[in-house]
Amino acid sequence: MRLLRPEVAFPLAYLLFLLLAMGSYASPVTSQYLRFASPGALPVLLTLAGVGLFILGAVLAERSERTADERLLLGAIAFLSFYVLHQEFPGYLLLAAAAASGSVLLWLGITRFASPGMIALSSSALALLALGYTLSRGVPLFEPVLREQVAVSPERAIFHGLGVVGSSMMLVSMPLRISLPLVSLLVAGGVLAGFKSDAIAIALSSCAAALLTKRLSVHALLLAVAFALLVLTLVSTHIAGTAYGTWSIPPWYYPLYRAGFTFLVFSSSVQLAFPLGLLHGRALLDVSQTIASVAVLGYTQEHIITTTFFGPAVLDFGLAGVLIAVPAGAYLGLMYRLSRSPAGAACYAAALVHMLILIEVGVQPTSVLFLLMLLYLSQRAQRR
Question: What's the pLDDT score for residue 231?
Answer without folding.
Answer: 64
